[in-house]
């Protein structure tokens, strides 16, 4: 397995790009550590597939280099990069048995039969598919086909990286959570460098030790799931991660003080920089209904199971609060309190407050 370095990577699908908007990837510098479990998370069109194709060698970047363990592979074709890939849809041979499907990537590389048998048994054990080994792949359910596809991606122990591209797309919703945790467990046992591409925050946060969040061709934050939740560096991360996402509320900044809808708001710490578009970010989990606080009127209450989400209007701006227990009626006047150590200022969408020590 290898450490993967992306250095100063940019990519445009246009022959003569003239501005940042012409780039599908805009300046990416990243180190993926050897043996790490990474997720590449972002909405459709943010550049995930472009980045994946550059790592696998299907696409040559317009600028920048890709290194595997310090060795420049930018100009190497896919078959010389030693990568295993699991795609959205199962890639298996229907006429072969599960055993032969799992053995295929090893036979292809001339691995001795005894070693193949050992490795296939090991992977089949990890995936709980031992009882299917002699079944023809054509007879498997779509879920099991995808499991075998994953097994084929994991069976070689000499690859630089295993890349998963939205691998749970075809999986039945009620089985998704099972396979999600299975993949995490597999990483812990196999210890390969793995990159998991998805637009689904739950999949990314379950699988990865480090999540790389992308928006519009840029990496906006790399962090553990907890870091992304606790301290979003960019409003996009706050909004995209969490359910519901972080409240991003426009504020007026004046001499170190900020006002939201005319009310002063206390921030977590001192403010950096000046000017630009300012907003505060506070997660709905840290907004409470209280006796004092910002006057608001309830617009909507949604019961989401373990708790409710109350959306209340402060002036013209909706604010969401996660509420346990009793909830007010629609239209009721309430007061909202923001937990100060969780209230951050964002300037032009980037965090602009120091954390309270
Ligand atoms: N072959 C291509 N030619 C021109 N533009 C492209 C091409 N492939 C992708 N793009 C553009 O590059 C940007 C990034 O696309 P990319 O497919 O990498 O995003 P993504 O995050 O993988 O999205 P999705 O999840 O929908 O596949 C988008 O604006 C897309 O329209």
Automatic annotation (TrEMBL):
The keyword Cell membrane applies. GO terms for cellular component: ATP-binding cassette (ABC) transporter complex, substrate-binding subunit-containing. The keyword Cell membrane applies. GO terms for molecular function: ABC-type ferric iron transporter activity; ATP binding; ATP hydrolysis activity. Residues 4-241 form the ABC transporter domain. Keywords: ATP-binding, Cell membrane, Membrane, Nucleotide-binding, Transport. Belongs to the ABC transporter superfamily. This is ABC transporter ATP-binding protein.
